[in-house]
Structures are given as structure tokens and as C-alpha cells.
Amino acid sequence: MSYSLDEVLRFFDYAEEKGLLKPNTAKANKAVVSRVASVLDASEQSQLERLPANEIYARFRTKFAMELSPDSLRVYKSRFQSALESFQKWKQEPEVFPIARQTGSPIVDAVPVKQLSSASTRRLLPDIPVPLSDGSVVTIVGMPLDLSVQEAQRFKRIIDSYIN
């Protein structure tokens, strides 16, 4: 899958406009990707997929280590990787990319409806209440007992897309 920095940045504008990500998340992701990728030259920016995210971040860390605190650098690393994962997820499977939901809404895995009926044969965990910092509780319903690593990673990407 090939892509450029410009394509990644345009994706976050598109994701905000179409409601695929919350506006603050889309703007923050775009800002982080833009800032971290600023260490790349034009040819590297035009073929962003050729460089591993951790290598790009390492160059960013080296350049900005004196300007940013270690905590800030950790946040940049986490958000940069998460932003690229969001873009790559959308590029691979745009039809199942998570849709932004308002705070307090139930979290639902964004899978095509035709797949939901086949999931009923799997053993499910009991409902999982997740207390949030504001005192509200989100309940995860229908989590399979035999979740695969790939499914867990997909679930993680969906949850990560809600981080502001």
C-alpha cells in the first residue's frame, strides 16, 4: 500500500468532514503527523509508506529532544503511530472504518451487518462495564470469549480513534 504525507493529511480533513473521526481527533492527528513528518525530505514525504513509523519518530525525537519534554515525546510517538494506523485502516478497509460517536454512546465494532449474524455462534463474555473518568459507564456487549489477536487489534484501533 503506497501513500504520501499529503494523502495522509488529506485523509484527516476528509475524516473530519465526513464524520469518520471526531473533529478534535482529526485535527490533532493531522497536526501530529505533520509535525513528526517535518523531519522528512520531499522524496521521503512522497513515499511515506517506505519508512517505518518508528524510524520517522526516532528522527523526530533526535531533532526535537532538547525542545520537548520526555512526556511530550512519548505522546507524540503514541499519537503519531495511532494516526498512521487510523489512516492505514481506512485505506485498507474504508467500508468498516469506525464512525465517530458522541461521548457516552455505546461502542459498537464497525463491521458490515452481514457479518453480525455469523458471530452469534461464538461464546461471548458477559457484558463488560467500563467506568469513565466523568463517572459515566460504557458497557461493552457481545465480546467473544475467543477473540483473536487481529480482532483485538481492530478493537484497539476503534477505541484509539475516540482519544482526543
Features:
single chain; about 160 residues; mainly alpha; two-stranded antiparallel ribbon; 7 helices; about 50% helix
How many domains would you count in the coordinates? Answer: 2
Q: Give the strand order, joined by hyphens, for the main sheet.
A: 1-2
Number of helices: 7
The percent range for strand residues is under 5%
Structural class: mainly alpha
The outline comes out as: globular
The parts where pLDDT drops under 50 for at least 5 residues are 101-119
Your description of this structure?
With 164 residues, the protein is mainly alpha-helical. The protein has two domains: 5-96; 113-160, no CATH class. Helices cover 51% and strands 5% of the residues. It is built from seven helices and two strands; from the N terminus they run ααααααββα. It has helices at 5-17, 23-36, 42-46, 53-64, 70-92, 113-116, 149-160; strands at residues 128-131, 137-140. The chain has a two-stranded antiparallel sheet. 18% of the residues are buried.
Layout of helices and strands, plus pairs?
Elements: H1 5-17, H2 23-36, H3 42-46, H4 53-64, H5 70-92, H6 113-116, E1 128-131, E2 137-140, H7 149-160
Antiparallel strand pairs: 1-2
Helix pairs in contact: 1-2, 2-5, 4-5
